Amino acid sequence: MLSWANQFSISVYLDNNQYHHLSYHRFECLVALNPVDTLPFDRSINALSDVSDWHSRNSDWLLGHICYDYKNELHPYLSSRQPSHFLFPNIYFFCPEVVCYIPHGTQQLVIESLQQSPQWVYQQILTQEPFFATDLPQINFSKKMLKDEYLRKINRLREHIKEGDCYEINFCNEGYAENVIIEPVNVFHQLNKSSPAPFAAYYRFQDQYMMGSSPERYLYKLGKKIISQPIKGTAKRNFDSELDNKLKQSLHESVKERAENVMIVDLTRNDLSRSCETGSVQVEELFGIYSFPTVHQMISTISGKLDSCSSLMDSVLYSFPMGSMTGAPKVKVMELINAYESSKRELFSGSIGYITPSGDFDFNVVIRSLFYNASTAYLSYQTGGAITFDSDAHLEWEETILKASGMEKIFQKH
């Protein structure tokens, strides 16, 4: 399905990689392609309302993305000073000609098509040349901020926290490579094989590509219920099961990691309360520990019941960008992110997802992802972590390296 979909200039592939230990999954995988209607409201503060209005009129599928830098439209006094390397619009949704998906917990393929018969689509998929993974080129990534500069900036951010400007800030660094030629489908295949994740995504937008292995959900809607599952807290894995369990337990008991997590939980509760019924927002799980191929993560689950006056995208409008990728208080830390980070985030720490014809949706957090501009041969990723006053700058640097390892290793010869 992915190889067939990749022929089209705009296509999305989403895969949960059978991570059933995280609640609230609707599909095992989903692919959508070839827009028949688009909503490219790049510079409109009303874009999310326009998405809601379009869906209320048409009751059809919508898929697309929201870049982190859409924050500048939601808060016009914010800006992004760094140059762009990619050409993803700040916000873009499309109604696809074809949607294929496997419902959660089944082995059935469902095909919905506006113009061709599902049988014809199925035959096109079956007759597609099989995808054979080939070795990726060896690529060495450079860091936009070298270690000494990164450490200095972490300590300066700790001073901002000491001075009362903020409590916690998500600070990121870019790894990049120039003049590289890759086959994006192959890269995604290798990444998904090496680092499978519950919110993995492959996204082609003309000659711009995103290949993601995200473990984090931003927002999930089921009827009137809205769920967010922010991640804050990371520990490396160990091949020795006894040592691995100790690392897992240490993460669960870490005062620092719990403090980071609970600050984002409180921020998320506040964000959701703006679109939910009074008193309905609750924490379903606090400090849950979930394991992935290279890391353990601390994940909390917050839910609420949408207010009867809320439109389809109000929960996104009032919570974007997600607190786990900003910090608290949100607007102030976004100003600091712009001042101290060396790279524009663009689609990184934004979101990709779908809206069903019935008005339910699921959006991920775009992290642990590679971005490729085929027209300029520029390949990059960004990694970071939550900075608090108790943060050790050297340990924060090591955490960025750990998170990057899952993406860099697929380009290294063994």
Please give a structural write-up.
With 414 residues, the chain is α+β, with helices and mostly antiparallel strands. The chain has a single domain, classed as Anthranilate synthase (4-Layer Sandwich). It contains 11 helices and 19 strands. It has helices at residues 2-5, 47-58, 71-74, 118-126, 147-162, 184-194, 241-253, 255-273, 314-317, 330-340, 393-408, and strands at 10-15, 27-39, 62-66, 91-103, 110-113, 142-143, 168-177, 199-205, 208-214, 217-222, 225-229, 231-236, 282-291, 295-305, 327-328, 351-355, 361-364, 369-373, 378-387. The chain has a 19-stranded antiparallel beta sheet that branches. The radius of gyration is 20 Å and the shape is globular. The two termini are 30 Å apart. The mean pLDDT is 94.
The assigned structural class equals alpha+beta
**CATH fold annotation:** Anthranilate synthase
Tally of alpha and pi helices: 11
Q: Count structural domains.
A: 1
Number of strands: 19
CATH superfamily: Anthranilate synthase
Averaged pLDDT, please? 94
The rounded distance between the terminal residues' Cα atoms is 30 Å
Overall form: globular
Task: Describe the structure concisely for a colleague.
The chain has 414 residues and is α+β, with helices and mostly antiparallel strands.
